[in-house]
Specification:
single chain; globular; alpha/beta; 6-stranded mixed β-sheet; 10 strands; 2-enoyl-CoA Hydratase, Chain A, domain 1; Lyase 2-enoyl-coa Hydratase, Chain  A, domain 2; 4-stranded mixed β-sheet
Length: about 260
Amino acid sequence: MAWVNVQRDGRGVAVLTIDNPARLNTLNTPVMTDLTAAAERLGADDTLRAVVLRGAGERAFIGGADIDEMAGLDADTARAFIVLVHRSCDVFRRLPVPVIARIQGYVFGAGVEVAAACDMRVASTDAQFGMPEVRLGVPSVVEAALLPQLIGWGRTRQWLLTGDTIGATTAQAWGLVEQVVPAEQLDQLVERLLESILASGSRAVRLQKALITDWEDLPLRQAVQRGIDSFASAWESEEPRQLMAAFQARRRARK
């Protein structure tokens, strides 16, 4: 059975769907293995421009890691399992193009961590977010480490130490998601974001994503230097000259 479906269009956009709706798209070993493999294949495609990540159905984006599988772990197998959870998040952070998390319904635990590893997060008003790991006897780990940069240390501490659930409006106020719309408008919002990405230089967008990812990891001085290097490397292609010439032509036409 295929746990992950990928649909491509002629624009270089891929929609990657986690297809486990009967279990709220929860992540078990087979699902995560398929997910990372599908994302890695996409990442190797030079024609790729953007990825939309979603869960099948309307009930959940990702309902978390599979509790039935976790309940059978021990001190040895727990490490391998959580490393696979990390890979399932990091593969989207390392994809060379923007990844939009299209969020509807439940988003718990590992689902929040996957979403945090994406570049943009948009949600329907019915979305519910939770990090309930402490209520199940384990800490929130791996890409939960990205949360302080998104929502701040205080909110991260409150959320992870209580295991409480928050709604989409609170998630937006915290900065966990960028935009919230009714479910029937979610695909339109995703399409508007895609149009903006596709209107930009494809190589420039790839350089920008790589730079932003580096910024998350590097001290300030190194981050600034990496930006200088990235700007210079942009001129190794014709894209800046072509896009700037087109901009100048449009400006002249308006005069």
